[in-house]
């Protein structure tokens, strides 16, 4: 499922690309050298963001292009204009989702002194946001509101149709 792949793989890649963006530079001592030049901090962060999000975007787009190529080579698949619009929306949402995790990674990389600390915090947040919260939300929702079985829905539908037919005959 594309949503699961995007949620798990691309968010994890974003975290792994970003965890040492600033903390790693601080540990190696290169951050001090960069900041000794007249480079505004905002430009440094923007450069780190663009430098990390571009490879992620290329990965997302390339993987979709490969999947689309396989689909288009199949004679059973034909895409119309609305399908292409949906595909573009899906790609855009995945890029925004990946960007959010990458931005979170840069944020924690700025806050942490060591890149290992940033990585551990990011992996904890990743597990929390990608695995635990969706699973617990699904569990809680199933406990709050139970979905009727398919057979119950079929019986109700049949009853409504029977009533409709009776009234139509009258």
Q: Pairing-aware structural class of the strands and helices?
A: mainly alpha
Largest sheet: none
Cα distance spanning the termini: 49 Å
* Structure summary, number of beta strands: 0
| Helical fraction | over 70%
Overall geometric form: elongated
Strand content: under 5%
Mean pLDDT: 90
Please mark out the parts with pLDDT under 50 across 5 or more consecutive residues, or reply none: none
| Count of helical stretches | 7
Element-level helix/strand string: HHHHHHH
Q: Nearest-angstrom radius of gyration?
A: 24 Å
How would you portray this structure in words?
This protein is mainly α. Helices cover 84% and strands 0% of the residues. The chain has 7 helices and no strands. The model has no long low-confidence stretch (mean pLDDT 90).
């Amino acid at each position: 499922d594309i949503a699961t792949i995007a949620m798990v793989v691309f968010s994890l890649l974003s975290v792994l690309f970003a965890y040492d963006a600033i903390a790693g530079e601080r540990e190696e001592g290169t951050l001090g050298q960069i900041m000794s030049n007249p480079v505004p901090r905002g430009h440094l962060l923007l450069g780190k963001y663009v430098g990390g999000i571009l490879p992620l975007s290329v990965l997302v787009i390339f993987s979709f292009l490969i999947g689309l190529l396989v689909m288009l080579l199949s004679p059973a698949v034909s895409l119309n204009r609305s399908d292409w619009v949906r595909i573009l929306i899906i790609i855009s949402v995945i890029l925004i989702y990946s960007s959010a995790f990458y931005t979170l990674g840069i944020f924690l990389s700025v806050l942490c002194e060591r890149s290992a600390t940033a990585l551990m915090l990011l992996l904890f947040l990743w597990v929390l946001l990608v695995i635990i919260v969706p699973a617990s939300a699904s569990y809680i929702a199933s406990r709050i509101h139970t979905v009727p079985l398919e057979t119950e829905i079929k019986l109700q539908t049949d009853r409504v149709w029977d009533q409709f037919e009776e009234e139509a005959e009258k």
